[in-house]
C-alpha cells in the first residue's frame, strides 16, 4: 500500500478510501518502509488503486521488500531511473506494530502525518540497539588499539610474536569496519561510495578474523608440541611464520574484490540495513561466500583445539610443573577465546540459510571483539604495564600541584618524626627464571627469560 500526501488538505472521498484500504491491508502488522523522497518521478510510485493526486510528496510503501521489488510499478520506476540516470530511491525497513487511528478520526488527518508517526515509532525502537551496537564496537576498537600500542611500544613486557600482533590487527580492522554510522541518526542515508566501501568490508572481515584465529590456534599447537619431545615434530623456519601472517589476507582480498565488483555493477543493491547499523547488499552471493569461509575456518579451529586438548592430556603432569605455568595459562586463554568458534559456526549456518538476521545477531557479532579484549588484554604483563603508566601519570599531575593544596596529613610535625622508628625500606631485587612464553615467537621448550621486575621490600635498621 502507498500512502501519499497531496498538496493541501485531504478530501473526504480520498480519506475514506484510504481508511478502508488501510484496514483491509492490515497496516498494523505490515513492514514499514520509511518515508522516501523523490524528485520528478514521484508519479511512478502511485501503487494499487489510490489514484493519482497532484503534487504528491513524501511517498512511503507499506509491505515487505520482496513485494516492493517485484511490484510492476517498481520495475517501471527502475527502468525510468536507468533511462534518466537518476538513482533509485532507497527504502529502509524496520518491523514495528502500529495501530492506525480510529476510522472516525482518520479523515481529519494528513496521510503524511500517519506515515511519519509510524516512522518515528520505528526509529525510537531501533535507536537504542543501534547505539548499543556502535558503542560495543567503539569500546572494542579503543581497547584493541591500546593493547596493540602496549605490546609494540612498551619495554616492560615480553615481546609478542607477529602472529599474535596480526591477530590483534585483524580485529582492529573488523571493529573499524562497523563504525561508519557513528554520529549519524538512524534515518541518515549515507553516500553511495561510503556505503559501498562498508558493505564490501562487512563481507570481508569475518573471513579475515576467522582465518587469523585459525593461524593463532595453529601456532599455539605447534609451539606446544615443540615444547615436548615428540618424535614427529620438527623445527619450523621463518618462512613458515611469514606464511601464517599473510594467509588470512588472501581470502579477505578475494572476498573484498568480489563484493566491490558486485556493488559497482549493481549499485541499486547497496543500502543501509533496516536497523541502521551498517550497509550491506541485497545480493546474496557475498554474504553466502563469507559465511562458507567462516564455517570452514572455524571447523578447522575446532579440529585443532581437539588435538591441543589431546596433547594437554598426555602431558598433564608436565604442565603442573611451575616451569610450564605460563604456557598453561596461555593455552587456557586461547581455548577460552576459541570457544566462540562454536558460536561462529552456528552464526555462519544462520547467515547462509537466511537473509534477514535481525539486530540480535548483530549484537552478538559486536560481543566477539569484546571477548578478545577480555581474554588477551588481561595478561599479567600487560596489566602491570598499564598500572605502571597510570601511576606515572598520577604522580606527574600530583607533582604539578602546589604544596599548599596537598593534604596536611602528608607533612609530619617534628614530634611525629621523632616518634617514628628509624627504618629505611630498601628494595632488594629477586631474580629467578620463568618461562617467557607469549603467543608469539618460535620458542623452544628451553627458552627462559630472567625477570627482575619482582621486588620485595626488606626492612633494614639503620
Automatic annotation (TrEMBL):
The chain crosses the membrane at residues 129-151, 163-181, 201-228, 240-262, 289-309, 330-353, 359-377. Residues 436-462 are annotated as: Disordered. It comes from the Eukaryota. Keywords: Membrane, Transmembrane, Transmembrane helix. Residues 442-455 have a biased composition (Low complexity). This is G-protein coupled receptors family 2 profile 2 domain-containing protein.
Amino acid at each position: 500500500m502507498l500512502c501519499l500526501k497531496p498538496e493541501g488538505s485531504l478530501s473526504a472521498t480520498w480519506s475514506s478510501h484510504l481508511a478502508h484500504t488501510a484496514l483491509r491491508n492490515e497496516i498494523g502488522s505490515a513492514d514499514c518502509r520509511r518515508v522516501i523522497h523523490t524528485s520528478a518521478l514521484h508519479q511512478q510510485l502511485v501503487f494499487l488503486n489510490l489514484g493519482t493526486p497532484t503534487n504528491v510528496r513524501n511517498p512511503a510503501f507499506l509491505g515487505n521488500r520482496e513485494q516492493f521489488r517485484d511490484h510492476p510499478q517498481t520495475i517501471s520506476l527502475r527502468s525510468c531511473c536507468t533511462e534518466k540516470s537518476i538513482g533509485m530511491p532507497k527504502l529502509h525497513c524496520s518491523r514495528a506494530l502500529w495501530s492506525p487511528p480510529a476510522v472516525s478520526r482518520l479523515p481529519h488527518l494528513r496521510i503524511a502525518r500517519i506515515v511519519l508517526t509510524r516512522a518515528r515509532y520505528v526509529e525510537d525502537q531501533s535507536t537504542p540497539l543501534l547505539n548499543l551496537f556502535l558503542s560495543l564496537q567503539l569500546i572494542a576498537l579503543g581497547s584493541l588499539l591500546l593493547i596493540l600500542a602496549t605490546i609494540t611500544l612498551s619495554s616492560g613486557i615480553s615481546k609478542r610474536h607477529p602472529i599474535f600482533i596480526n591477530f590483534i590487527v585483524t580485529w582492529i580492522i573488523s571493529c573499524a569496519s562497523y563504525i561508519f554510522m557513528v554520529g549519524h541518526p538512524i534515518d541518515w542515508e549515507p553516500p553511495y561510495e561510503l556505503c559501498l566501501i562498508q558493505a564490501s568490508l562487512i563481507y570481508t572481515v569475518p573471513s579475515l578474523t576467522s582465518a587469523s584465529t585459525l593461524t593463532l590456534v595453529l601456532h599455539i599447537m605447534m609451539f606446544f608440541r615443540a615444547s615436548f619431545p615428540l618424535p614427529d615434530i620438527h623445527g619450523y623456519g621463518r618462512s613458515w611464520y611469514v606464511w601464517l601472517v599473510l594467509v588470512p589476507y588472501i581470502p579477505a582480498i578475494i572476498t573484498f574484490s568480489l563484493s566491490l565488483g558486485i556493488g559497482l555493477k549493481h549499485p541499486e543493491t547497496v543500502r543501509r540495513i533496516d536497523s541502521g547499523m551498517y550497509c550491506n547488499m541485497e545480493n546474496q552471493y557475498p554474504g553466502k561466500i563469507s559465511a562458507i569461509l567462516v564455517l570452514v575456518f572455524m571447523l578447522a579451529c575446532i579440529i585443532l583445539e581437539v588435538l591441543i586438548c589431546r596433547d594437554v592430556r598426555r602431558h598433564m603432569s608436565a604442565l603442573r610443573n611451575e616451569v610450564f605455568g605460563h604456557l598453561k595459562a596461555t593455552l587456557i586463554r586461547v581455548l577460552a577465546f576459541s570457544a566462540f568458534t562454536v558460536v561462529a559456526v552456528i552464526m555462519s549456518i544462520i547467515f547462509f540459510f537466511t537473509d534477514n538476521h535481525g539486530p540480535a545477531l548483530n549484537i552478538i557479532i559486536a560481543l566477539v571483539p569484546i571477548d578478545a579484549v577480555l581474554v588477551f588484554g588481561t595478561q599479567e604483563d600487560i596489566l602491570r604495564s598499564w598500572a605502571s603508566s597510570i601511576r606515572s601519570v598520577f604522580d606527574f599531575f600530583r607533582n604539578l600541584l602546589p604544596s599548599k593544596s596537598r593534604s596536611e596529613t602528608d607533612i609530619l610535625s617534628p614530634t611525629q618524626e621523632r616518634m617514628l622508628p628509624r627504618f629505611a625500606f630498601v628494595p632488594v631485587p629477586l631474580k629467578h627464571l620463568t618461562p617467557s612464553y607469549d603467543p608469539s615467537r618460535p620458542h623452544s621448550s628451553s627458552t627462559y627469560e630472567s625477570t627482575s621486575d619482582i621486588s620485595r621490600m626488606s626492612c633494614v635498621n639503620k
